[in-house]
From TrEMBL:
<feature type="active site">
    <location>
        <position position="75"/>
    </location>
</feature>
<comment type="subunit">
    <text>Homodimer.</text>
</comment>
<comment type="pathway">
    <text>Amino-acid biosynthesis; L-lysine biosynthesis via DAP pathway; DL-2,6-diaminopimelate from LL-2,6-diaminopimelate: step 1/1.</text>
</comment>
<keyword id="KW-0457">Lysine biosynthesis</keyword>
<dbReference type="InterPro" id="IPR018510">
    <property type="entry name" value="DAP_epimerase_AS"/>
</dbReference>
<feature type="site" description="Could be important to modulate the pK values of the two catalytic cysteine residues">
    <location>
        <position position="163"/>
    </location>
</feature>
<keyword id="KW-0963">Cytoplasm</keyword>
<feature type="active site" description="Proton acceptor">
    <location>
        <position position="221"/>
    </location>
</feature>
<feature type="binding site">
    <location>
        <position position="13"/>
    </location>
    <ligand>
        <name>substrate</name>
    </ligand>
</feature>
<protein>
    <recommendedName>
        <fullName>Diaminopimelate epimerase</fullName>
        <ecNumber>5.1.1.7</ecNumber>
    </recommendedName>
</protein>
<dbReference type="GO" id="GO:0005829">
    <property type="term" value="C:cytosol"/>
</dbReference>
<feature type="binding site">
    <location>
        <position position="46"/>
    </location>
    <ligand>
        <name>substrate</name>
    </ligand>
</feature>
<feature type="site" description="Important for dimerization">
    <location>
        <position position="272"/>
    </location>
</feature>
<dbReference type="Pfam" id="PF01678">
    <property type="entry name" value="DAP_epimerase"/>
</dbReference>
<keyword id="KW-0413">Isomerase</keyword>
<feature type="site" description="Could be important to modulate the pK values of the two catalytic cysteine residues">
    <location>
        <position position="212"/>
    </location>
</feature>
<feature type="binding site">
    <location>
        <begin position="76"/>
        <end position="77"/>
    </location>
    <ligand>
        <name>substrate</name>
    </ligand>
</feature>
Length: 278
């Protein structure tokens, strides 16, 4: 099969995007692993598949696979690329696009300047929604003991996928590479977890790095940014509108508090069009 795709990225978080609306396309785990191989395939953090909706009030279905073949619930950077893709491929002419995900539903707003605002829905801080086998808690912070390291304080957040947010005084390579994998695969998170490390610069600005579940650190993580900012707002560290500086660039997050949706705004970039034999 000759597979056509678009290579895209959101702040360096890179994707291969495939149209499965115009032509039905199915992938098995081995095929996704091949496509995700940066030496032998296309190479990407995630494969995004645009499918027809299963619900009549939705425009599309959005499926996301890591390069190891595992399917995930949500990807915020990918959602922005998804919106740009369906417009450029003339799959829709709407500026507000309703999309199904494995987790539920999201809404994509395409701005006149080409940036995309994603309505990520309301977050949950309930440990069971991650899931997280809750440990000692104080002031909405949970203490997690890490073998060979000590303990960290974290805020568990679900934004359709699970996140553990850790505030640090100074963001370093060492803390991300050491603590990231220890928390990601900790037994308190039965399904593993994405780990965000946030350095608060002011009430309107943070530095952020995310160690993603099953992937490792990436240039940017949209859901991780949303999780970190809402955790910071809930803890009283941040205002309702915040700019997050990631390795790949900046995202703008707005959250008005309990029960409100998270609004994430940022760029989506097409790198090239390609095709590959599968």
């Amino acid at each position: 099969m000759l597979l056509k795709f678009s290579k895209m990225h959101g702040l360096g978080n890179d994707f291969a995007v495939v149209d499965a609306v115009s032509r039905k396309v199915y992938f098995n785990k081995e095929q996704i692993e091949f496509l995700g191989d940066r030496n032998r395939g296309i190479g990407f953090d995630q494969l995004l598949i645009v499918e027809p909706p299963t619900s009549p009030d939705m425009d599309f279905r959005y499926r996301i696979y890591n390069s190891n073949g595992s399917e995930v619930e949500h990807c915020g950077n990918g959602a922005r690329c998804f919106a740009k893709f369906v417009i450029e491929k003339d799959l829709t002419n709407k500026s507000v696009i309703n999309v199904e995900t494995k987790q539920g539903q999201i809404q994509l707003h395409v701005q006149d300047d080409g940036e995309v605002t994603v309505d990520m829905g309301a977050p949950s801080f309930a440990p069971a929604d991650l899931p997280f086998d809750a440990t000692e808690k104080q002031d909405d912070l949970y203490t997690l003991n890490l073998e060979g390291y000590g303990s960290v304080e974290l805020t568990p957040v679900s934004v359709g996928n699970p996140h553990a947010v850790i505030r640090v005084d100074r963001l370093t390579d060492e803390i991300v590479s050491t603590v990231g994998p220890l928390v990601e695969s900790h037994s308190a998170f039965p399904a593993n977890v994405n780990v965000g490390f946030m350095e608060v610069m002011s009430r309107d600005e943070v530095n952020l790095r995310v160690y993603e579940r099953d992937v490792g650190e990436t240039q940017a993580c949209g859901t991780g940014t949303c999780a970190a900012i809402v955790a910071g707002i809930r803890q009283g560290w941040l205002n309702s509108k915040v700019t997050a500086h990631l390795l790949g660039g900046d995202l703008r997050i707005e959250w008005q508090g309990e029960g409100s949706p998270i609004m994430m705004t940022g760029p989506a970039t097409k790198v090239f069009e390609g095709q590959i034999y599968l």
